């Protein structure tokens, strides 16, 4: 871990270019996450959003999504972690990085690429809301549209 920390610090000394600054921020978040400071890693990535959005770097975005997925999983936020894992997989697939797509699948298990898990969640939430008896006809119509959109 000491060598990794030193390497990230060295990268920090050459961040005059926005692309290097973006990768430096992602590397810092990775160190935080690896040291078990998951909340701080997520906050660091949130704070780095302007830098990350300011450059077009699918690699930095891919790594940031993986770090978010790891941190969220460690914090017990499985659904949100799966969303980030899907983001990493989507980036890898769209960039034609089969090796990185394999990394994401291997690290996060079988990622639901079809969105079926999301559709199941929407269905469960709909039943809970409708079963609670606190809904209007307009609520039912909006939920029906949301479910239809999720399924498509």
Describe the model.
Helix 5 (58-74) packs antiparallel against helix 6 (78-94) and helix 6 runs antiparallel to helix 7. The chain starts with a helix and ends with a helix. The relative contact order is 0.08. It is elongated and about 60 Å long. It is built from nine helices and no strands. Helices cover 79% and strands 0% of the residues. With 152 residues, the chain is mainly α.
From the structure above, extract its key features:
152 residues; mainly alpha; elongated
Task: Describe how the helices and strands are arranged.
Layout: H1 2-12, H2 18-34, H3 38-47, H4 49-54, H5 58-74, H6 78-94, H7 98-108, H8 116-131, H9 137-151
Helix pairs in contact: 1-2, 2-3, 2-5, 3-5, 5-6, 6-7, 8-9
Compose a concise summary of this entry.
This protein has nine helices and no strands.
Number of helical stretches of at least 4 residues: 9
Backbone structural class: mainly alpha
Q: Between the first and last Cα atoms, what is the distance in angstroms?
A: 45 Å
Number of strands: 0
What portion of the residues fall into strands of 2 or more residues?
A: under 5%
Radius of gyration: 19 Å
Poorly predicted ranges: none
The major pleated sheet works out as: none
Global geometry: elongated
Helicity level: over 70%
Order of helices and strands: HHHHHHHHH
Mean residue pLDDT: 79
């Amino acid at each position: 871990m000491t060598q990794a920390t030193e390497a990230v610090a060295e990268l920090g000394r050459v961040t005059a270019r926005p692309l290097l600054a973006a990768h430096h921020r992602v590397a810092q978040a990775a160190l935080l996450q690896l040291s078990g400071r998951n909340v701080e890693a997520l906050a660091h990535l949130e704070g780095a959003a302007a830098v990350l959005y300011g450059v077009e770097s699918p690699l930095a975005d891919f790594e940031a999504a993986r770090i978010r997925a790891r941190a969220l999983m460690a914090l017990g936020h499985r659904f949100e972690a799966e969303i980030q894992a899907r983001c990493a997989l989507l980036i890898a697939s769209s960039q034609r990085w089969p090796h990185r797509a394999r990394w994401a699948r291997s690290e996060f298990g079988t990622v639901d690429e079809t969105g079926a898990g999301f559709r199941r969640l929407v269905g469960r939430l709909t039943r809970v809301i409708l079963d609670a008896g606190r809904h209007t006809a307009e609520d039912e119509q909006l939920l029906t549209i949301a479910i239809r959109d999720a399924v498509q």
